[in-house]
Hints:
The protein has one domain (7-82). 27% of the residues lie in helices and 34% in strands. The protein has helices at 7-21, 70-73, 82-88; strands spanning 27-33, 36-42, 48-57, 60-67. The longest helix has 15 residues, at 7-21. The radius of gyration is 14 Å and the shape is globular. The model has no long low-confidence stretch (mean pLDDT 83).
Amino acid sequence: MRVVVGLDNVARRFAGLGRQFAGSGLRVEPHEVNGQPGAVFRDASGRVINVMVLDVLDGRIQVIRSVINPDKLHHLGPVADAWALLRETPPHPRR
């Protein structure tokens, strides 16, 4: 687990992920997760890769939780091998 703290650091992390997976066919579907805003990430074949949920308190994001364990995602449909997807995605130069 990697903890990223602070608005700028979180924004940079998400921007980097966006660049890394640009053109890979990754889809992000907004969903409510346990009563909080979240998203389901799917690969180009529609298989679930990851679920993220925002813990919001007083209108501010407190924590972003990520679930990538396939045992916890299978109820959402076919699950992708997230680690294989990372290995198959060519590295994107950092800026």
